User: Fold Claudin domain-containing protein 1 from Manacus vitellinus.
Amino acid sequence: GAMMDNRFATALVIACVLSLISTIYMAASIGTDFWYEYHTLSPAENVSEAGRSIWEEFFSKDADEKTYTDALFRCNGTVGLWRRCITVPKNSHWYSPPENDMTTNCISFSLSDQFMEKYIEPGNHNSGTDLNRTYLWRLQFLLPFVSIGLMCFGALIGLCACACRSLYPAIATGVLHFLAGLCTLGLVGCYVAGIELLHKKLPLPDDVRGEFGWSFCLACVSAPLQFMAAALFIWAARTNRKEFTLLKAYRVA
Assistant:
């Protein structure tokens, strides 16, 4: 009886909380620009005319991968799934004091950018298509949405289950969360592989350090939360079904 019901209720509540947190983390990581960060160790004051042309190209509509990656290296760039950002001096006058007068400017990847081919030599479209990088990039753009979609669909099924006072749909919710976790893991894997392959083609300059940022970490944390929620949903549904069958058998006897 009541004791058992409390156990399921607790498991389901914890599963729902984990699911909610992982959804929030996924949404935050999709929406922020700190998947990968470059730290340029050389000071910003040696920003010359060359520097200015680098920024102008970075913001131009037809910046190719090599152009914008060079700008990211040079200007403390950060990259998200949707946007790329660089930090540039506010004033373009060379005589203004360079300290603390920096501003971060971002430009979005358009949909066509997201699906555009990556080339074997970044920026050189005569070098042929790099299929690995092209598909890794497309996957890292699509998978987070699939993951969030699966969790929202799971939540809908869960709500119906509550309305019908039945635990059977909790298994479906669990399975959907498990699939969402796989998508999130896939996303993290694709992102890491894509960055590694890019840096093989365009090695980091000596005075630039690169590291995965907190947006990337949110996605990494989201995956285990999805798996834990999945396990709890499935456990609660299965054990409850067993008890229910035992109770029925006992009644009949």
Summary: The first strand starts at residue 36 and ends at 40. The chain has one domain: 1-248.
